[in-house]
Amino acid sequence: MGTAEAVAFYAQSWIATDDRAVRRIIAPDAEIEWNLGLPVDDEELVQTLHRIAAFADQVSVVSRTCAGERAALVYDCVAPFGTVRLAEFLVVAQGRVSEIRQVYDVVALRRHFPGLLET
């Protein structure tokens, strides 16, 4: 699976709240970082993405750029109270996502997804 296919599968899986598929596409030793001020590992990432997708009225990929093994995605997460933008920077190795860097609009996330960061 190439970068574009792996990244599309990853995004479609978490947006559809298919946690098993998300876990399959993330490499076991993946490096994961985000700007939420909380510790993160693959399980915390999967749970957080699940909560976002479940609470949101709609999650859509508004931009996707792939270059070699790297990809950048921008999402709009539409909640009942407003929209939150999320950017992800991914690296794919051997058909699995091996690095994930997430950047959230933390102010909008706290405002429009209340309680998400309190777990």
Strand residues, percent: 35-45%
Return Rg in Å. 13 Å
The total count of strands amounts to 5
- Describe the largest sheet: 5 strands, mixed
Mean pLDDT: 93
How many structural domains in the coordinates?
1
pLDDT < 50 stretches? none
* Oligomeric assembly: single chain
Protein name: SnoaL-like protein
InterPro entries: NTF2-like_dom_sf
Organism: Pseudosporangium ferrugineum
Fold blueprint:
Layout: H1 3-15, H2 19-25, E1 26-34, H3 42-55, E2 58-67, E3 70-79, E4 82-93, E5 96-104, H4 106-112
Parallel strand pairs: 1-5
Antiparallel strand pairs: 2-3, 3-4, 4-5
Key structural traits:
about 120 residues, alpha+beta, Nuclear Transport Factor 2, Chain: A, 5-stranded mixed β-sheet, 4 helices, 5 strands, about 35% helix, about 40% strand, globular
